[in-house]
Amino acid sequence: MALVDHRRRLMPRVTVVTATYNWATVLPFCIASVRAQTFGDFQHLVVGDGCTDESAEVVMAAAAGDPRIRWVNLASNTGHQWGPNTEGIRLADSDFIAYLGHDDLWAPNHLENLVGALDAPGVGLVHSSTLLVHPSSAPTQFPEPGWTYEPPEWIPPSSVLHRRDIAVEVGGWTAPEPDSPSDPEAVLWAAIADRVSVRWVPRLTCVKVSASIRRGVYRERPCHEQAYWLDRIGAADDPEKDLAGAIGEPYSLAVAPYRRPVDERLVWAVRTRARRLLGRTPVTGEERTRLRRRFKGLD
Fold first, then answer.
1. DSSP code at position 61
2. Cα–Cα nearest to 195, from 122, 265, 287, 297
């Protein structure tokens, strides 16, 4: 029993999973965001989806000898974050799972706030508020005041912390289903919500710089936006207050490097609520995945 208790104390409380594919330039900013957390009892698994670029070398350099950070690369490409996230959960030694997209960032108090909320009895998933950084308009906040989660609504994975055992119990991440109107993350959140409570922590601690509304980013591999937001967070006396101040501010940093302006409202409709696209025709999971991959420069 003493050996079991000792091993248990050595396990991290949180496993942070970052799914990535051939976009190594953003990884130093993502990793720096995790290393800056005020809650330090974590391991960070950066899981490549069959990466063939310099991601492994970049992760090792960004980790700077930090034993909490580990690089893992899948043998083949699954084409979606569900593959790396599934491997991350499988490898996790922790009670809790967090996600940070390779192109997203956290405020330093992100994990600290969410771990405290997830410790409440009966709660299985918590999420913070997210600053959605659009490429050609002012940042917005998700969710808006008064929002209540109703399955199978979308919640940004980078804002989520959930219990590992519940995710395993419900089957974890699954591949996109051709006829499903919901993304794999929305399906997982809904399955968890069937068993335990989902709680919104209304603290603005996540910055989402979504590839889904930035044309060709996987070809051009920019990282200037991540650099800007990480520097801004690091320089702020109160990062959360500074991010809140960015809501509605003019923002044009993303426009120049991309090929042409994007109707991000259209793409976000597909991304979040499985609404209708182009003439209000239904979008299947297979069509949605194909459209996103082509838009982002993956195909």
1. H
2. 122
Count of C-beta atoms within a 10 Å radius of residue 38: 11
Length of the chain: 299
Q: Taking the mean position of all CA atoms in its chain, how far away is CA 118?
A: 18
Strand partners, 71: 46
With a CB cutoff of 8 Å and minimum separation 6, the contacts of 64 are none
Encode pLDDT of 17-58 as tens digits: 999 999 999 999 999 999 999 999 999 999 999 999 999 999
Domain boundaries, given as residue ranges, for the chain: 2-296
CA angle 87, 91, 97 (to 5 degrees): 85
CB 129 within 8 A of CB 49: no
196-205: burial string, b at 16+ Cβ within 10 Å, e else:
bebbbbebbb
- Phi, psi torsion values for 191, nearest 5 degrees: -65, -40
Give the span between the Cα atoms of 132 and 156, in whole angstroms: 10
CA distance to 290, 292, 299, per residue, from 154 (Å): 19, 16, 25
Report how far residue 243's alpha carbon sits from residue 254's, in angstroms, rounded to the nearest whole number.
17
Q: How many CA atoms lie within 13 A of 290 on its CB side?
A: 7
> Do 183 and 275 meet the contact criterion of CB atoms below 8 Å apart?
no
Q: Which fold has domain 2-296?
A: Spore Coat Polysaccharide Biosynthesis Protein SpsA; Chain A (3.90.550)
Whole-number Å distance between alpha carbons of 269 and 194: 25
Total-model pTM:
0.84
- Residues 218-241 pLDDT 10s: 999 999 999 999 999 999 999 999
Instruction: Identify which of 203, 205, 252, 246 has the alpha carbon closest to the alpha carbon of residue 224.
Output: 252
Higher pLDDT, 258 or 234: 234
The helix (H) or strand (E) run that includes residue 100 is none
